[in-house]
Design goal:
This protein is of the alpha/beta class. The chain is built from eleven helices and ten strands. 34% of the residues lie in helices and 12% in strands. Helix 3 packs across helix 4 (100-107). The longest helix is centred in the middle third of the chain and has 15 residues, at 205-219.
């Protein structure tokens, strides 16, 4: 049934036909002189995962208000897709002043491609988180960081191997083939051990357990928060930031999420009733010279619902999985 439902403010803020040139990571080196840098890495494949940065955008004011004044970080946002299927699988914004509208402006620079690929077999449940980890480990400097955190928001697992040809094509510079274990070990060292996963369970129990096992091997079991309700994404990020700044327990953060989950109701989305929202300038075009071995899917294959959206699992199911 067709509807005339208006887009929400968040949907309008993120609306763009392609990635912005300023957000692409190729040949980019970033340096952050802040004492508390935080990187929030959103999976931007699939409609369900792309809803999370939109919720974060909607709830930004509450997020900013909830962080104690003594613990306000400098935040970067990144968007992660699949290098084998997507047009812009690696995006990162500039740093954002810890103020609601500036954070919203930077977050909305990400293109929510809603691509990804590979099927739903366990061995194919991967997105290119390891490529962003490589970029942050090798091309992102933190000379003055006292506290820091690198947070992945994901529902699948990293790939185990990083090939030189893929690194050269998507990141530029001088690279060598490596593996995810080595990359994440370097990433953890750079971020003082504070590499976290906010995990959104999106598949069956067998697939979810396989995905979790891969993340546990890379970052440790005590660095993973399970997201029991999509609406709690800002709470999850907030609790991780506070945990790092105040040396709180991850178990306390998970307990708080689980307690809040039954009380959270979907919020009525705010719609734009006028056309006053300015459009961001579009500078980047889709690549046309991709090598054959990295050939992207066609537009028909890369349609918005290419990866089926799965509902978040209820807490009872998570308990059955031992989470």
């Amino acid at each position: 049934m067709k509807t005339n439902r208006k887009p929400t403010l968040a949907q309008q803020a993120f609306n763009k036909p392609r990635a912005l040139a300023e957000c692409l990571v190729k040949d980019l080196i970033l340096g952050c002189g802040a004492d508390f840098p935080v990187i929030i890495n959103f999976d931007v494949t699939g409609k369900g995962m792309c809803r999370l940065p939109q919720i974060f955008w909607e709830d930004m004011a509450e997020f900013v208000k909830a962080i104690p004044a003594t613990e306000k970080p400098t935040i970067y946002f990144s968007g992660i897709g699949d290098i084998r299927y997507d047009y812009a699988p690696l995006q990162i914004t500039g740093h954002a002043v810890f103020e609601t509208e500036h954070l919203r402006q930077e977050l909305a620079k990400l293109w929510l491609e809603q691509g990804g690929g590979g099927g739903e077999q366990i061995e194919n449940l991967n997105e290119s988180y390891e490529m962003m980890a490589y970029f942050l480990a090798k091309r992102f400097t933190l000379p003055r960081a006292l506290h820091t955190a690198c947070i992945f928001v994901a529902d699948e697992a990293p790939r185990g191997e990083l090939e030189k040809t893929e690194l050269d094509y998507y990141l530029g510079g001088v690279n060598a083939s490596t593996d995810a274990t080595t990359v994440f070990a370097e990433l953890k060292q750079k971020f003082h051990g504070n590499v976290f996963l906010i995990w959104r369970p999106s598949f069956g129990a067998k697939e979810n357990n396989a995905i979790l096992e891969q993340w546990r091997a890379l970052i440790g079991d005590n660095k993973i928060l399970t997201l029991p309700n999509d609406r709690l994404i800002t709470v999850a990020v907030r609790e991780l930031i506070i945990a790092v700044a105040a040396n709180h327990s991850m178990a306390d953060a998970q307990k708080k999420l689980n307690e809040l989950a039954p009380t959270v109701c979907p919020r009525a989305a705010v719609v734009q009733t006028t056309s006053t929202t300015p459009k961001l300038p579009l500078q980047e075009v889709r690549p046309s010279n991709i090598p054959a071995e990295f050939q992207l899917a066609t537009d028909a294959d890369n349609k918005l619902d290419a990866k089926p959206e799965e509902p978040t699992l209820p807490i009872e199911t998570l308990k059955d999985l031992g989470l």
